[in-house]
Every structure is written in structure tokens, then in C-alpha cells.
Amino acid sequence: MLSTLLVSWLVLQTSAPVGPAVEWVEVARDALQPLRFAIARPASGDAQTSSRVVLALPESSAREALERAVREVSMVAGVGACVVATTDPLRESLEVVAELQRRSAVPLNRPVVVGWGTGATAALRLVGFAPEGFGGVVALAPGALEPEDLARLDAAVGLPMALLRGRADAREPLLAVLERRALLGDDATLDYASTCETVALDCNEERVRERLLAFLSAEARRSQAEAQVRARLDEFHAAASRADLAGYFACLAPDAVFLGTDATERWTVPQFRAFCEPYFSKGRGWTYLARERHVRLSREGTIAWFDERLDSASYGEVRGSGALRLDGGTWRVTQYVMSLPVPNDLAKDLVERIRAKR
Fold first, then answer.
1. Full domain range(s) for residue 332
2. What are phi and psi of 330, to 5 degrees?
3. How far apart, in whole angstroms, are the C-alpha atoms of residue 116 and residue 138?
4. Residue 180 near residue 157 (C-beta atoms within 8 A)
5. Model pTM?
């Protein structure tokens, strides 16, 4: 009988799921405080095999708690993502992601944040500070947020968010977030975890896994669309540089408008084509090299807004901004605005010169 029980126990132990290996990464930032974070890599052990990143925020920042959190979130997610945790997420999360990107051969998607207890409160504060840096947040029973934290969350409208609580967990912090998002015309999901008194990963694995999969998949689609938008803008400038008239106007929607640096330069596509054709026919294009670009997508993923800083041999630094629309699976520019940034200390003199000319 004893031997049978012993064999059964051994079978259970060997068949129990084993969490992924967790390692600590240390990056020298300065002599006083290096960047340290715990990471569980995808199953292959190669961080380059996945562009998906999950940031785990447990209740404690102790080393053992962070290691356990990374391991547990990796097992819950089950999506081949890199899961990371740092002792100071509010200050270091974006630095950690930047370091992962530096080490990766593929572009990384924005991370999805999973936090519970005080870690859930920190997760909501974090996305409020940097809403454009994250692809979603799953918050399990967060504590109360300060009014300024709730106000910062206004900038995270449209960010995928799931809020979970147990039967005995406080409702008020979650309702404060829901009410504020509702006032802004946004929505978030609220689950009542009836399987446990207080919400935790180990009794909400399916709910958390479902939301992680949904948020990571949505972020992957968004990242792919953003890459397509960036590629279209690159092709737009490249076609101009090689004086490729057909390629240049293939990047523009039929109803597009181009606004040049001169106040008179508001061109429809036919007007702009008439302006460009004499130059392009002689092989005379213009070269603008993007050195900084920001892209934002609509919630439906069919409209994109951008702004970019460009270098030009003729005009120095210029700024471009505008919008693109997804038409039949192809992104096309619907508006492009070219402008010349003017240093504030030169603006008054320049305005006077423009007025004098008119």
C-alpha cells in the first residue's frame, strides 16, 4: 500500500507542469544603479523567436516574488511570449522593453501588462503615464487610485483593458475606472471571479489566458498595420527621391490633399500631379529622409495618423504630418502636410518678414 502511494505521488510530481526557466539580466546604466529584470523566454529559449512581450507586476518586488510571477504568467499565457518583471516597473518598464528590442532581431510589439493586488494598481498607473507604450492591461483586484492617476488614465482611452476581482475584493477601485472610461465613451470588461474569494492567477488562469491571447493578438495586428503604414510612407518618400511619378502617386488616395510649405500650396491629386510631372519627367525628384516618426491607428485599424521629422538637403529639417486610409487592403495617404519648423527665438522676426512681403 505504501509503495503504491509512493508511486502515485511520484507520478503526480513528474507529470505536474514545470515552469519555464527564469534568468536575471543586468544592464549597466550608470555606476550606481544598473537595470535589472527577470525574464522567461519563449519555449525555444531564443528571445528572437517571438515579438510578443508580457510585463508581470506582482504584489511584491522581492526577487523571489518576481521570479515566481514571471514563471506563473508564462505558464498562464502559453503564447510563446517573453515575460519580464522588474523591481521598479513605473520607472524601468519601458527601459526593459527597449533593452529587449536592442537584443532582438525582430521588431517587438508593445507589451501587455498583467498585475495583481498592488501590482494591478501599479499596472493602471503605468499605462496612465505612458499609454502609447503598451498594448493592453489585465488588472486583478487593484487598490484605489489617486484622482490624478484616474485622470492620467484618460489618455489610455482605447487601450484594451480587463478588470477582474474576487467575491471579497473591493468593487470601488474598479468601478471608478469603469465610470471614468464610460464617461469618455470607452469600454472595459469587468469579471467577477466567482471561483475564489480574492482574485489570484491560480484561480483565474482561463480568464487571464483568454484576455492575454486577445490583447496580444490585437497588438500583433496593430503592430503589423503600423509597419505597413511606415513602409508606405517610406515608399512615398523613396518614389519622390527617384522621380518615380507612377510610384509616388500610387501612394496617394484619389481624394488626397497635399499641403506644401507655402500658404498657396493646397493641392488635390490632379493639381499636385500637374505640379510634379515637369520635375519628375526630367529626373528631378526631392529627397526627404525620415529620422523620427510617430504613428497612431484608429481602434478599427483602418485609419492612421502620423507625424515625422525629415532631413532635406535643400530645406534642412522639415516636418510632415497627415493621415492614411486602408483601401482594399492597401494603405494610401489621404493628407500630407509639409511644414518648416521655426525656432521660437526666430519666429517673431520671420513673421515680420512674411508680413512685409505680403
1. 225-357
2. -120, 130
3. 8
4. no
5. 0.80
